Task: inverse folding
């Protein structure tokens, strides 16, 4: 009769071997998948770059003059308003508290 401890040790060893084999298989599959993804992306990038170099950057819609005018208006309004802010710095006491009370601001 076989000792139960011996069976347990043998099953543990087989489990360890199976886990190692599975880890090696997963690693090989992962490496192959990453290489295939790299090849596919390289081909897609190359095809895109070839198309851009051959056809230029065509295919884009030209800038709408009305949208450009609104963008310029907003930009000029924003740059004009930036300098128009009236900011007053409130002095602090030596202990870091403000010299004016909150009621003075309301």
Result:
């Amino acid at each position: 009769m076989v000792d139960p401890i011996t069976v347990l040790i043998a099953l543990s060893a087989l489990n360890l071997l199976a886990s190692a084999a599975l880890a090696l298989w997963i690693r090989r599959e992962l490496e192959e998948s990453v290489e295939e993804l790299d090849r596919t992306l390289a081909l897609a990038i190359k095809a895109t770059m070839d198309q851009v170099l051959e056809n230029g950057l065509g295919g884009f819609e030209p800038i709408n003059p009305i949208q450009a005018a609104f963008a310029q208006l907003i930009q000029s309004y924003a740059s004009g308003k930036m300098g128009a802010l009236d900011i007053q710095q409130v002095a602090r006491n030596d202990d870091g508290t403000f010299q004016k009370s909150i009621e003075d601001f309301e």
Notes: The chain has one domain: 4-79. DSSP finds three helices and no strands in the chain. The two ends are 95 Å apart (CA to CA). Residues 4-79 form one domain.
